[in-house]
Amino acid sequence: MAIFVDRDTRLVVQGITGRDGSFHTQQMMEYGTRVVAGVTPGKGGQSFDGGAAGSVPIFDSMDTAVRETGANTAVIYVPPAFAADAVMEAAEAGITFIVAITEGIPVLDMTRVYPYVKERGARLLGPNCPGALSPGRAKVGIMPGQIVREGNVGVVSRSGTLTYEVVYQLTQAGIGQSTCVGIGGDPIIGTNFIDCLEAFEADPETAAVVMIGEIGGTDEQEAAAYVKQSLSKPVVGFIAGQTAPPGRRMGHAGAIISGSAGTAEEKMQSFEDNAIQVMKRPSDVVELIRGVL
Amino acid sequence: MNIHEYQAKEIFRRHGMPVPPGDIATTPDRAGELARTYGGSVVVKAQVHAGGRGKAGGVKLAKSADEARSHAEKILGMEIKGLTVEKVLVTPTEDIASEAYVGVIVDRSSKRPVFMVSREGGIDIEEVAATNPEAIRRLTVDPRYGLLPFQAYWLAASLYDDVKQQRAAAKIMGQLYEAFIASGASLAEINPLITTPSGEVKAIDAKMNIDDNELFRRKDVEALRDTSSEPPSEIKAREASLTYIKLDGSIGAVVNGAGLAMATMDLIKFYGGEPANFLDIGGSSNPEKVVNALDIITSDPNVTVILFNIFGGITRCDDVANGIVTATGQMEMKVPLVIRLTGTNEEEGVRILEEAGFSASTSMDDVVKRAVEQAQ
Questions:
Q1: In the beta sheet, which residues pair with residue B80?
Q2: Options B67, B99, B189, B346, the catalytic residue
Q3: What's the CATH class of domain B21-92?
Q4: Which B positions 236-255 lie with beta carbon below 8 A of chain A?
């Protein structure tokens, strides 16, 4: 099984002709993801040449792309000014899983996008996220395919490269992953930790979960309470930003300690209070996961 | 991005809100002149991006132009939470009958704008939230419809019993919401919203934070940025599209990705060192970014060692290696570099570095330990 993306993923790439979009389309195709369509307004009728990995038809709109190809998943590489519209276009076209890679979407745009997507029954991952990768099955987004390995550990994180670091440690130790999910570093995101934990709980191929959080907000604390209440699978956790000064935005728009709320200490404490083993450093993941598997 | 009180007040005025007059002075003489035009009785308020200005002595009442001048003399140049006061706002004093709090923020859990109002105004709202949470009333706005008139009345009625004041406050709620949306704010606050003995409702303080992601489409708001209140190194970093935050330690860090950058700082601390900065070179593969990053970090005199922690994904290790070689060729390096390169094009990156006489590790723990040793 795995969660969110799998062998039945039929992917459409929004912004396929852009610099990032074309580079990552190639990478996703080489990984074996079924990329069935691309969308760039004005370039309908052309096709994306993925070399040995094949070619992908390009459409002017999501509506046509979905109708012609039966795509069920979308990944968005369009610039921040147009990204909110791209997400809503995907939801309106009937896509059920939408991954927004774009960084820098105004938060007020997201306050309108979120209910729009939800009312159409779709799930949004991100924005400002690296996507989702189910090793050996499908890669949607920008996570490097060479650092993962098939296995039974679910990984969910607010970060990009820190996720790679942890996944790489696991892979080097011979511990594989069911799905690696980056939920994104923005204050308003479509899928939170609890959504991913729920999905991992329901996935028979996931035996344990690694949860990587950071300062800012209360998503980790709420997830910790959820773990204690509803999760039968063991969870180990990490929080980045123990040395972050309050009131400063640490790169991610959502990584900010407001007043005295959202500190790393508070989050690590809530992990400990809810039976989540806390990693003191990223490399601790191997020992802790071995201990619970 | 933070903007100053006087700038937020200007935005409020443009949206029709009752905000008393006021103007900025950068010299004591100008503050005295302004006080005279307002009739002598004024408040002199430090304009810095820090809370707790009053407690720090940055807000003073004056009864005459001379007193305003001497207050301004003390406040200008004063340091509040490490920031030097370069400007004061001079505004006429108001007679106050009651003080309330009104704020609107983007709420992360409900994913919507949320109003918070309280009859307990003029004080730290976080403190009220902690000690007396029932004193705060919250209202969630559906951004697709905006603040509806009945919602504005509900908010106003939770602050005032007098019908006229409720009407006046409801109008202010609507105007505040408009200002919030039109400026791309993440927070807009009136603290306090006062009533005068004659029954008028007025906003005598204003605070707004702007979502940085909005600035590309709001040049008028971007123009309000006060670079004099930022460290020059952070301004330079922003112009080079780097995210840099200066800290007090001795280990400079260059990292790709915000989460990994924070985790690197934490690991420095874990092994007994102190990070000198947060620096995220972002996801792009531009060697120029590495040159700029090194330039910024080496200008911090506290830095005794520079640590690179690069996990190549979109960022390519060979680009970073080229950046390091270019930068060290251009500038004289007075401190050692400790480098970790893993991921996309790792072998090529390591080869480039070795040819230039550097060594690179693939383990994050190893390089951080080495950096901490070398910093001592």
A1: B83
A2: B189
A3: alpha beta
A4: 243, 245, 247, 255
